[in-house]
Fold this protein.
Amino acid sequence: MSELQAATRLSSSAALREMVIALDELRDSAGYRGLDDRRGMDYHRRRPQSVPHTAPRAGTWSEQNGHESIALVAPQLEPEARLPLVHQAVEAALLEVAAAMTKVRHLAPVVFTELGIVCATDFGD
């Protein structure tokens, strides 16, 4: 049980508990975790401290034997960073997010009512 589930256990709103379960399921879903793993992998790929081909670690200008030169560093991606794989990770996560947000959208008015919150909701259903 997540900390949020434990906190909502004390609530009088059953719909609020259902909403939190939906959000916890999203967090734990394969699609969302895959996207989070992808984000972590891609972040480290682009940190100058992590990989030599993303940013120069020293000056790019040099002089040798009377000749001046500038070395340019070109970013490049590893094979597993190909666009189709990134697209698959994002698509899977967005499908999970859409399913969770649909649950939340339908539960929100019930939560408001159960908690005595007066709120005009029009989600365009």
Q: What stands out?
A: Helices lie at 3-8, 14-28, 30-46, 83-114. Residues 83-114 form the longest helix (32 residues). Strands lie at 61-64, 67-70. The mean pLDDT is 80.
